[in-house]
What we know:
0% strand
Amino acid sequence: MAEPHxxxxxxxxxxxxxxxxFFYRRLRAKSDATDLVQEVYLRMxxxxxxxxxxxxxxxxxxxxxxxxxxHAMADRRQAARAAIGEVDGAVEVPGFEVTLDATRRxxxxxxxxxxxxxxxxxAVILQYRHGLSYKDIAERLEISPxxxxxxxxxxxxxxxxxxxxxx
Length: 167
């Protein structure tokens, strides 16, 4: 590592505590803060010409802010994929004891759940499969607890109407 580049990184490393606090205040999962701080410094190490940066401290926090946005988008994508993926295996059916009617109902329920909006479907899965409270669901989906209640009521009404047609 070239000497000016090493000095540049060492100067920025003095802001490690402030950077950690920056992430800690903005993250739901506080344990991710340390990993994100490390990622910021890795990105700073990849800078080929640090002499072109006029305000390294501001640049450091700009990189941190962009990383925070990337992290939030990745979390949302992962939550949506997990919620949609869980619908496919939402109901475990015991082997030989299952009747044809029960199998059709399970298939129908999976289809009906897929008709819901992604957040509505995720709220149903988080409530009924994982047993989370309205508050926990609201935090994960970044909505209010009253919106969780509305989504669950909407989903139950939708499921009742659509499942009734099967009978």
